[in-house]
Amino acid sequence: MEKVIHPANSRGTANYGWLNANYSFSFANFFNPDKVQFGLLRVLNDDYVKAGMGFGTHPHENMEIISIPLKGEIKHKDSMDHTAIIEAGEVQVMSAGTGVEHSEFNSSKEELNMLQIWILPEKNGLEPRYDQKDFSALMQSNELINVVAPKADQSENSLYINQQAYLYLGDFQAGKKIDHTLKSENNGVYVFLIEGNADVEGTTLKKRDAAGIWNTSKISLEFKIPSKVLLIEVPMN
């Protein structure tokens, strides 16, 4: 087993007035040669967006993009003629493929906190696509919920992306212990603690800390206090 720890305070930060951003990996003006990506996970941004503000229309291509609002809501509009509101409890996926333009705004009266994740696709030049789903009814305490998976290995409820990657969300009570078995020996898992305090393979993670783990078939987590966690399982090459 190999492991890298990314404390919350080691992330890149940027305050644009309307946006307070936290970058787990090199992004925008933040560059750290040791934090370019984890396997095929390229971006994990933890953004706080003021009411009525947001990202104007901008392009993407050849990237699998997952957005998870933790508080507030996102108003999305794209060049595929999708206009949607994504609220906390929902997950949005967008395969940029050959190219897509979109905008994202905080359409509520409160601050928006969202996670945006970019994963490199299996193939370039794929047809762009969009989807979203409300997982709030499935988020039962003490269970990992598979919210994103490859198309060929979707659960009954998960969204899909064009990569052999899996995203899980979980809300756990104090004292709960879980094991997570990886889907492939080529995969690693990036554990991002949204809230709480957890022991992950001998390392204590607190709010917004992360651990990347690979060269293992299974990881164990123990939650010391009520906690929320995001697991991102991705190919390492």
Automatic annotation (TrEMBL):
Residues making up the signal peptide according to the UniProt record: none
Keyword Kinase recorded: no
Domain Pirin N-terminal intervals: 11-119
Membrane spanning residue stretches: none
Gene Ontology terms, MF aspect: metal ion binding
Domain Quercetin 2,3-dioxygenase C-terminal cupin: 153-234
Coiled coil: none
Keywords of the record: Iron, Metal-binding
Cofactor-binding details, from the entry: Binds 1 Fe cation per subunit.
Family affiliation: Belongs to the pirin family.
Protein name: Pirin family protein
Source species of the chain: Christiangramia forsetii (strain DSM 17595 / CGMCC 1.15422 / KT0803)
